[in-house]
Design goal:
single chain, 516 residues, alpha/beta, 2-enoyl-CoA Hydratase, Chain A, domain 1, 3 domains, elongated
């Protein structure tokens, strides 16, 4: 065979790869509203930058007639390229080839590309679209999943890991996305569950559709497993790109820096009017966030899960920050089990990847209730105390209004190692709400009173005068400063700028024992 013929053979083989599972399989994929794996890769990477690795890999199993099957690239595309100018590794499963099923070589390709991401210190994106383990390969398929999970853990906290659920992701396969940092799931086509509807019906008798069991709203609002809902595949890819733009390539580097020479610290008088005079009246914390951050740009995470707290990424003077805030519009911003888990995981991520944390506090306490206690609110709430205390990145808190009891501490109080704490004049820091406190502190006086209601009102006024302001905390150095709301961006900008070179020494240990 001549050199020319060999080159032609290479071209022919490469052309075959782009046919994926054949015309009928591709047509079926498109009819289902899904792109092919190579189309997805083309959408993710900057034009002309993607370099595929292991394109000619194929299965080696001969079980159940597998030796007669042609599985181009063994059903998964792996490689590296530039996403908005930054190196990123990818594994993208091909449902048109054997349903994207995971076999020995399929898994080996994914593992090798994850190893490369770790060596190069670059993010890893995994586009999931698979029918699950390749049954014909038996234990080799299960071992492949195990190797992927192991690498998910090795990469954790070293490089960002993002999963896109573009099709089915069931059984053991669901645990790989769960081990990554962020999950983006596509509405309608994405399905994520450990046990499918048919098995559940056989075992428990419960009847449920795959959408209700493992669709986007089930896995966002109910379980809190996923982080972003995408309307379609293009939306998922764009969300992935936007997310990567906030993140550093690895844990040894800072996030992308778009800062200019001067800080933008102009006052915003509208913030002076944003807190209602009635302390029971809610307001939208998203509006506060929008007025504080660059270009009103806030990438909210898990917006349908535990909506009583808000988490997400923004920028302050061009630098990425992680934002945690109570949402007074929902449950008055109280902390419950789900909110505690949501905040704790996010704080943990920010700390691992050198992202400063800004906390906006308006919290009436931990949510009371029998189900909360039985569900372990003590254990879950303790996660917030643990993660904030363990975080060594710059931490700045602003107390906007209520900051009661243990929830005040859990929202990154000074005593949990917060570097800067400021309060608005509307701040209320106390062990508990005024009415409850009065009933405890003055119960004997009220019981003996000839006019209980009048005395109760008098004691309430006294308690509020003493505790329902930020000055007592400021007098004891628990609050660094009391600021006008309009000057909040200035305070945050200067604090974060001065904390850029923060260093914090901790006791030597393998790791702490978070109350899981």
């Amino acid at each position: 065979m001549s050199t020319k013929e060999k080159i032609e053979e290479l071209r022919r083989r490469r052309k075959e790869l782009f046919k994926c599972g054949g015309e009928r399989a591709v047509e079926k994929q498109h009819k289902a509203g899904k792109f092919t794996t190579r189309e997805r890769v083309g959408m993710l990477f900057d034009p002309g930058t993607f370099s595929e690795m292991f394109p000619f890999a194929t299965h080696r199993s001969t079980n159940f007639g597998m030796d007669k099957k042609n599985l181009p690239a063994d059903g998964v595309v792996t490689g590296v390229g530039m996403v908005t100018g930054r190196e990123t590794f990818v594994a993208s499963q091909d449902f048109t080839i054997a349903g994207g099923s995971v076999g020995e070589i399929h898994a080996d390709k994914i593992c090798q590309i994850m190893d490369q991401a770790l060596k190069c210190g670059s993010p890893f994106v995994f586009i999931n679209d698979s029918g699950g383990a390749r049954i014909q390969e038996g234990i080799d398929s299960l071992a492949g999943y195990g190797r992927i999970f192991y690498r998910n853990v090795l990469l954790s906290g070293v490089v960002p890991q993002i999963s896109i659920i573009a099709g089915p992701c069931a059984g053991g396969a669901a645990y790989s996305p769960a081990l990554t940092d962020f999950i983006i799931m596509i509405k309608g086509t994405g399905k994520l569950f450990v046990t499918g509807p048919q098995v559940i019906k056989q075992v428990t008798g419960e009847d449920i559709s795959s959408e209700d069991l493992g669709g986007v709203y089930a896995q966002m609002a109910r379980s809190g497993v996923i982080h972003f809902i995408a309307e379609n595949e293009l939306d998922a890819i764009n969300t992935c790109k936007r997310l990567l733009d906030f993140l550093p390539p690895n844990n040894t580097e800072p996030p992308p820096d778009y800062s200019g020479e001067e800080l933008e610290i102009s006052p915003d008088p509208a913030l002076n009017k944003i807190i209602p005079d009635n302390p029971k009246e809610p307001y939208d914390m998203r509006e506060v966030i929008a007025r504080l951050v660059d270009n009103r740009d806030f990438l909210e995470i898990q917006d349908h899960f535990a909506p009583n707290v808000l988490i997400g990424f923004s920028r302050m003077n061009g630098r990425t920050i992680g934002l945690v805030a109570n949402q007074p519009n929902v449950m008055a911003g109280a902390l419950d089990i789900n909110a505690s888990d949501k905040v704790s995981r996010f704080v943990r991520f920010c700390n691992a990847f050198n992202i400063s944390i800004v906390t906006l506090v308006d919290v009436p306490g931990f949510l009371p209730g029998i189900q909360q206690e039985y569900g372990g609110i003590i254990r879950h709430g303790a996660k917030m105390l643990f993660t904030y205390s363990a975080a060594t990145v710059p931490k700045v808190s602003i107390i906007l209004r209520k900051a009661y009891g243990g929830a005040y501490l859990a929202m990154c109080a000074k005593d949990l190692g917060c570097d800067r704490v400021a309060a608005w004049p509307t701040g209320q820091i106390a062990v508990m709400g005024a009415k409850g406190a009065v009933e405890i502190l003055y119960r004997r006086d009220i019981k003996k009173s000839k006019n209980p209601e009048a005395d109760r009102a008098k004691y309430l006024k006294e308690y509020e005068a003493q505790f329902y302001n930020p000055y007592a905390g400021a007098a004891r150095n628990m609050i660094d400063d009391i600021i006008e709301p309009k000057d909040t961006r200035r305070y945050l900008s200067l604090a974060l700028e001065l904390l850029q070179n923060k260093r914090e020494l901790r006791p030597a240990k393998k790791h702490g024992l978070i109350p899981l």
